């Protein structure tokens, strides 16, 4: 992307109504908007030249005023042969974000960012060190999918909002992006294959439940009690555990799907047998799954527990009435594991 295209409005991210507005601005009939939608989200074109059912002069007019992609792919870390690859993108405004592509058996999962940096300040997470810079636009979220798809040898089967940022602090755009990914006239990505993970922004969980979205919901619990969450997650002060659990109840009442609780295992902080027992007590009777994430070290004070401690913790949890899985983050060698995303460099 050169500096000329940088100043142009990107079309990726616009829905049918917004594309219609652009067509009417260009004095074009509204069926053009439908064609445009198809080219952008179904045919995944990279240039206006590829829009074959557009007259030449119209392709040119589009090219003068608009560009297609809001993101520029700067660097890919990891080769196609590796199970995990990290994608560094530049925004038109100069900031940088990362997406992670993970291959595991039949599943190819894309982890997308929703913000540049993060305001939540969880003590164990690398993204927190960037501070909060800005919310991503709908296009900047959707374009992560479109651009990584082109680089992925296998079709992406799952999308998780677990990259940089707190999705529910950029609620409207995250939902609009998921809706665009899911739109049946375009990308048509199944709602149940999209997961939104939140740190526990209570009013937004309630709103999400009321709006009855069909995307899967994950909540980063990371502690078995209010006291334990407070050790590493200052947000627990604003949204205490009982309120969080009530909000999640309203989700499970409204949704056919269970909520997934993520639980990061940190040595000496969240990894005791007593923690595992408290967790069972807290979650029993709820429609949920638990995803245990052994801590990925980021050069700070926190450590991953030993394999024995992790196994003991999981063995206790295996007595629980809900399913438990372990997420052994892949790509920790290229800092692509959960909580390791941070773009601290100023220039590429
Ligand atoms: N802000 C959202 C989305 C981030 S998802 C949320 O909090 O849910 C990233 C997941 O990785 C979260 O469950 C988070 O708790 C976890 N995580 C953060 N830092 C980590 C680290 N260093 N090692 C392992 N997991 C981490």
Describe the protein's architecture and organization.
- With 348 residues, the chain is an alpha/beta fold.
- The protein folds into 2 domains: 3-67, Orthogonal Bundle (DNA polymerase, domain 1), CATH 1.10.150.530; 71-334, Aldolase class I (TIM Barrel, Alpha-Beta Barrel).
- Helices cover 34% and strands 20% of the residues.
- The protein contains 12 helices and 14 strands.
- It has helices spanning 3-6, 16-25, 31-41, 56-65, 138-151, 171-182, 202-210, 226-232, 235-238, 241-254, 273-283, 307-317; strands at residues 9-10, 66-67, 71-77, 84-91, 96-104, 107-111, 115-117, 132-135, 158-161, 194-198, 216-220, 259-265, 288-294, 324-326.
- The strands form 3 sheets. It has a 10-stranded mixed sheet. The protein has a two-stranded parallel sheet with strand order 1-2. A two-stranded antiparallel sheet has the order 7-8.
- Helix 2 crosses helix 3.
- The model is unreliable at 1-5 (pLDDT under 50).
- The structure holds S-adenosyl-L-homocysteine.
């Amino acid at each position: 992307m050169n500096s000329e295209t940088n100043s142009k409005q990107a079309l990726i991210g616009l829905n049918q109504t917004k594309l219609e507005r652009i067509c009417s601005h260009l004095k074009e009939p509204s069926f053009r908007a439908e064609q445009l939608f198809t080219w952008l989200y179904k045919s995944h074109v990279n240039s206006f030249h590829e829009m074959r059912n557009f007259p030449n002069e119209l392709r040119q007019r589009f090219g003068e005023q608009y560009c297609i992609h809001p993101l520029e792919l700067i660097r890919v870390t990891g080769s196609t042969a590796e199970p995990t690859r990290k994608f560094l993108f530049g925004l038109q405004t100069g900031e940088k974000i990362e997406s992670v592509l993970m291959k595991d058996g039949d599943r190819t999962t894309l982890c997308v960012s929703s913000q540049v940096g993060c305001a939540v300040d969880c003590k164990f997470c690398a993204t927190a060190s960037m501070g909060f810079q800005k919310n991503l636009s709908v296009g900047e979220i959707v374009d992560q999918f479109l651009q990584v798809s082109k680089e992925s040898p296998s079709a992406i089967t799952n999308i998780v909002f677990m990259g940089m940022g707190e999705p529910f602090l950029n609620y409207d755009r995250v939902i609009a992006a998921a809706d665009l990914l899911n739109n049946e006239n375009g990308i048509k990505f199944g709602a149940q294959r999209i997961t939104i993970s939140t740190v526990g922004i209570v009013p937004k969980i309630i709103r999400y439940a009321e709006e009855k979205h069909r995307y899967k919901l994950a909540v980063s619990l990371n502690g078995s009690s209010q006291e334990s969450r407070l050790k590493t997650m200052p947000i627990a002060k604003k949204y205490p555990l009982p309120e969080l659990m009530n909000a999640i109840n309203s989700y499970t009442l409204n949704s056919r799907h269970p909520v997934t609780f993520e639980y990061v295992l940190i040595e000496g902080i969240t990894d005791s047998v007593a923690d595992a027992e408290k967790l069972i007590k807290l979650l029993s009777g709820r429609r949920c799954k638990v995803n245990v994430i052994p801590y990925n070290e980021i050069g700070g004070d926190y450590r991953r527990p030993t394999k024995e401690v992790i196994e003991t913790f999981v063995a206790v949890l295996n007595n629980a009435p809900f399913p438990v899985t372990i997420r052994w983050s892949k790509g920790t060698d290229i800092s692509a594991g959960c909580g390791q995303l941070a773009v601290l460099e100023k220039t590429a």
